[in-house]
Write a structure and sequence with these properties.
The chain is an alpha/beta fold. The chain has one domain: 3-Layer(aba) Sandwich (Rossmann fold). It is built from eight helices and eight strands; from the N terminus they run ααββααββαβααββαβ. Strands 1, 2, 3, 4, 5, 6, 7 and 8 form an eight-stranded mixed beta sheet that branches. Helix 5 links the parallel strand 4 and strand 5. The protein is globular. The chain starts with a helix and ends with a strand. The chain binds S-adenosylmethionine. The site of S-adenosylmethionine has 21 residues, from loops.
Length: 214
């Protein structure tokens, strides 16, 4: 491994989980979390659990949270929120593309700003569909490929460099198309620009809401 690769790896393993924890902790982000996951219920499976920032937005209808995330640093950061949560939170895996849970075993799947980072996104969505009960909901808020041609062009051109500094985040994924391709009913999802500020447009086309199974 070259010196540059070692620095990049160190950033992705150690620095990035802390940076994400800070960037995704403000009040505006909290509003998106509350809207997307506030109605979660029963057994919740969180893809990309990160530092546990969603825990404080779950209501009393959530009985337990099953967490999948490869980052040990983020899992350590989550411990105080897990202790406060007062219900079981269990780390059940490190890759959403391979979920070690039975078919039809969870009531809610949650993903917040995570579907962009999972390398094998098609397998992860197929797995999410498999473990979700027929009446379950996939609750999410994710940034997605923009419908604006100029922004899409930038997203596709910038992806190779952005992917390296962001630990594999994709700004060029069409989340609605991916979810529909995996068998989710996307007609209930909302898509809009979260921040109408030109410099953040490549990250600000948000897809959010709850999708059932088709
Ligand atoms: C931008 S962070 C979002 C974290 C958290 N969902 C939140 O809202 O604060 C993306 C998360 O996806 C996780 N991740 C990356 N690859 C993954 C995979 N294959 N399976 C599950 N999670 C993954 C990362 O470790 C990181 O914690």
């Amino acid at each position: 491994m070259s010196a540059r690769e070692r620095v990049e790896q160190f950033w992705v393993d150690r620095g990035l989980p802390r940076a994400v924890d800070i960037v995704l902790s403000d009040r505006i982000v909290g509003g998106w979390r509350a809207a997307a996951i506030g109605a979660a219920r029963g057994t919740v499976l969180e893809l990309g659990f990160g530092s546990g920032r969603n825990l404080r937005f779950y209501g009393d209808d959530v009985s337990e949270v099953l967490a999948i995330d490869p980052s040990d640093v983020a899992w350590r950061l989550a411990q105080s929120d897990i202790a406060r949560f007062g219900r079981p939170v269990t780390r059940v895996g490190d890759d959403a593309a391979l979920i070690d849970l039975p078919d039809n075993s969870v009531d809610t799947v949650v993903a917040t700003w995570t579907l962009c980072s999972i390398p094998d996104i098609e397998s992860a969505l197929t797995e999410a569909r498999r473990v979700l009960r027929p009446d379950g909901r996939f609750r999410l808020v994710e940034h997605s490929l923009s419908p604006k041609q100029s922004v899409r062009r930038f997203q596709r051109a910038a992806q190779p460099v952005w992917g390296r500094v962001s630990g594999g985040c994709h700004i060029d994924r069409d989340m609605v198309a991916l979810l529909a391709g995996a068998g989710f009913d996307t007609s209930t999802l909302d898509a809009r620009d979260a921040f109408r500020v030109p410099p953040v447009q490549p990250w600000s086309w948000f897809v959010s809401g709850a999708a059932g199974l088709r």
